[in-house]
Amino acid sequence: MREIVTLQIGGAGNAIGDSFWHVISHEHGVDYPSGRFGGNSPLQLERINVFFNATASKRFYARAILIDTEASTVQRLNFSSQLYRPENFVVGLESAGNNFARGYHTDGAAILEQVLDNTRREVESVDSLQGFQLLHSIAGGTGSGLTSLIMEALVEKYPDNLLCNFVAIPSPNMSQVVVEPYNALLSTSALRNLKIKMSGYEHINHIVALTMSGITTCLRFPGQLNAGLRKQQQFSKGTVSELVQQIFSSNNILCSIDLRKGKLLTAAGLFRGRMSPQEVDQLMTGNTSAIQSLFQRLLDGSMAMLRRKAHLHWYTGEGMEEQEFLDAQQELQAIIDDYKSSAEGENFGGDSGRGGIERSPDDYEEKAATSGHCSFCTD
Ligand SMILES: Nc1nc2c(ncn2[C@@H]2O[C@H](COP(=O)(O)OP(=O)(O)OP(=O)(O)O)[C@@H](O)[C@H]2O)c(=O)[nH]1
Ligand SMILES: [Mg+2]
């Protein structure tokens, strides 16, 4: 069935996850509070197993592992819905205190084995695992540090399966904690983002959830389109040409980047709704070099703090060394350089061969698979 296991990590990850389960439960006719099927179409059930586990009596459970270093986030979700299985809650004793080092080395590391045990149990219970989706912020300690740890372990244990991250990136408008650039720096790999005006987390989480629902529609419902986790989608009402215009409009991007200042490296669009098959049969995945400005902002923010060694003791006190920050900065700079050279028509990722814009979508899909990024930010 090509099942997907969801890992929701930290405060933001669990809030985004909860929003996602709300949206897709509704689409599949599953009652969110009780987990019981009340739908009216066999299509809602045909591929429901991609994300849900089911009992014979049509009682559904989210195939999700709810992870946090502090218990309160996950407990709240336990009260709100029976979709979540309490045996899949993995919580620690206290929050990682907005500190990557605590998520990676201490508080988060303490619950890693339990996360992996639960993940293995879920993986063993499915027919044919497609991959994992990880939901988290990279500004808090758990979402940045523990997620990095989990990803390292998943890549090692499940090298053939896809990792797809939905990431809340610290925003100049919504940042709460001064060390967010450090956490983001330390946990950043290549990310892809979209932007709109936000009124609050609930709004953001709902948009992320809708987008996740959109991306996974063709996995969850039968249809003429065939796509996997490696393909991304944006959707709304309108004619096909209006939709295409909206897709490429900077107003519809969910982070602070200007599409005009970059080059699209790949583009595919997936349309959902009543349209002719010829119109619908267009698949688009966007990966734009304009994203480099967002990475540059993260890099500049962390460099300004690191030059003054501001707040560094919170990290070195947990066993990290300044060199790790410098290495991470170099890595982020390399990502920015990659995007810069691709915008100038050179190769992406320093490979020899064809120029950036001429490469086939598969090349980038492979890159996405190894660096694992389908991402959103709170800008
Ligand atoms: N999109 C979104 N972002 C959120 C939400 N809650 C917090 N954030 C952002 O996430 C960052 C804080 O990360 P959290 O997820 O709360 O932190 P955590 O992973 O639980 O880590 P610790 O609390 O330090 O252990 C800040 O940048 C917030 O702006 C949410 O519900 N949705
Ligand atoms: Mg937290």
UniProtKB/TrEMBL annotation:
Names of the cofactor(s): Mg(2+)
Location of region: Disordered: 343-379
MF terms (GO), sorted A to Z: GTP binding; GTPase activity; structural constituent of cytoskeleton
Domain Tubulin/FtsZ GTPase span(s) in chain numbering: 48-223
InterPro entries: Beta-tubulin_BS, Beta_tubulin, Tub_FtsZ_C, Tubulin, Tubulin/FtsZ-like_C, Tubulin/FtsZ_2-layer-sand-dom, Tubulin/FtsZ_GTPase_sf, Tubulin_C
Composition bias type Basic and acidic residues, residue spans: 356-368
A biological-process GO annotation: microtubule-based process
Pfam families listed in its UniProt record: Tubulin, Tubulin_C
Domain of life: Eukaryota
Gene3D superfamilies: Helix hairpin bin, Tubulin/FtsZ, C-terminal domain, Tubulin/FtsZ, GTPase domain
Keyword line: GTP-binding, Microtubule, Nucleotide-binding
Listed PANTHER family: TUBULIN (PTHR11588)
The protein's role, per its UniProt record: Tubulin is the major constituent of microtubules, a cylinder consisting of laterally associated linear protofilaments composed of alpha- and beta-tubulin heterodimers. Microtubules grow by the addition of GTP-tubulin dimers to the microtubule end, where a stabilizing cap forms. Below the cap, tubulin dimers are in GDP-bound state, owing to GTPase activity of alpha-tubulin.
Family, as annotated: Belongs to the tubulin family.
Protein's UniProt name: Tubulin beta chain
Native organism: Drosophila gunungcola
